[in-house]
Design the sequence.
């Protein structure tokens, strides 16, 4: 059971000009799962390396339950890291892979066997003790890697894009499994991903990372419905921003022309007729996705992206249409 405090971390790699992490601070509650969402190069893996001790920060502190871990040996910190690739020992069977850390700690073989069995039940793969790790599917390999990470009762579980190389169905399965196991054990967890849906499905809170800084940190549903800044909104799939002058009919939130407003693509209507808050444009793309239709409409110099649930009209390329921004779905954002 661990509370994690990350305090004003700074990190610049040798021979690099730009810092990877800038005055980075974050507190994670005991038993919480925080997802880190950010584009490639935003510093996600670096943060995990600083926590495990693979790298050292230039300044700042990392504390577990109020005590700094920076001067503790990496293998004694109690933070375990799981990667996109499982890195199981190919010459060992599943039991020996999972039990490896316990053996190093000097646990008796009988206790190790019992612990491995408990972990295999937990990950939903009972009875595969004697299988060689080379005979596991990608999804099974990641489950075993998770068991190996958790068997030592770590203080903090760090998952660095662990599902990125898996097929969608296996991936969804494992998202659910990891989430359930994490809740059952109550282990404090950081989950790094670049997949928005995955981050929302898995986490108690999400941290949006851009260039080594947290742009926003909140519950997934709050970030989804009401991101406060343009940067946070873009992370959450919003691409349409309007200033107050462009709106004819306003709600209370957007009564000022000075302010900037955003709207989610699924709330924009693409229609033949104009109405309040409409803009005229020409269809540049219209894609049938089964459950919804995706539109791109050129309006003045900008492209408006919208999606409407079925049944919705298909329009030919170049068709003149109106995009309508219903006032109840507009929300204010800071630039
Ligand atoms: P992410 O995991 O979000 O993709 P990383 O933390 O791996 O980002 O990398 C952040 C930035 O730091 C990148 O620009 C990357 O090239 C750079 N970087 C990462 N590791 C090193 C290293 N060992 N030496 C120099 N630069 C590095
Ligand atoms: Mg990374």
Sequence:
């Amino acid at each position: 059971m661990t509370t994690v405090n990350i305090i004003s971390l700074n990190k610049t790699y040798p021979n690099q000009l730009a810092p990877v992490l800038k005055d980075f601070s974050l507190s994670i509650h005991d038993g919480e799962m925080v997802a880190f969402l950010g584009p490639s190069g935003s510093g996600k893996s670096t943060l995990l390396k600083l926590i495990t001790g693979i790298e050292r920060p230039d300044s700042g502190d990392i504390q577990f339950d109020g005590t700094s871990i920076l001067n503790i040996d990496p293998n004694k910190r109690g933070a375990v890291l799981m990667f996109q690739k499982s890195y199981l020992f190919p010459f060992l069977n599943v039991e020996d892979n999972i039990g490896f850390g316990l053996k190093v700690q000097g646990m008796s073989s009988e206790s190790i066997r019992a612990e491995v069995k408990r972990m295999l039940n937990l990950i939903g793969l009972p009875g595969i003790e004697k299988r060689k790790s080379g005979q596991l599917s990608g999804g099974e390999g990641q489950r075993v890697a998770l068991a190996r990470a958790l068997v030592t009762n770590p203080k903090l579980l760090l998952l660095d894009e662990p599902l990125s190389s898996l097929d969608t169905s296996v991936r969804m399965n494992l998202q659910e499994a990891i989430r359930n196991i994490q809740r059952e054990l109550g282990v404090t967890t950081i989950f790094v991903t670049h997949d928005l849906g995955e981050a929302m499905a898995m986490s108690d809170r999400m941290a949006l990372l851009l260039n080594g800084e947290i742009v926003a940190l909140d519950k997934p549903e709050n970030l989804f419905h009401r991101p406060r800044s343009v940067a946070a909104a873009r992370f959450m799939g919003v691409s349409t921003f309007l200033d107050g002058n462009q709106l004819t009919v306003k709600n209370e939130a957007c009564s000022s022309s000075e302010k900037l407003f955003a709207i989610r693509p699924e709330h924009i209507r693409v229609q033949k007729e104009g109405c309040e808050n409409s803009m005229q444009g020409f269809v540049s793309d219209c894609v049938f996705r089964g459950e919804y239709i995706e539109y791109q409409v050129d309006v003045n110099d900008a492209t408006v992206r919208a999606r409407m649930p079925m049944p919705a009209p298909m329009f030919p390329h170049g068709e003149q249409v109106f995009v309508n921004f219903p006032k109840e779905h507009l929300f204010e954002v800071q630039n």
Summary: The pocket of adenosine-5'-diphosphate (ligand 1) is lined by residues 13, 16, 20, 38, 40-46 (CB under 6 Å). The chain has a mean pLDDT of 93. The first helix runs from residue 44 to 52. The chain has two domains: 4-233, 238-333.
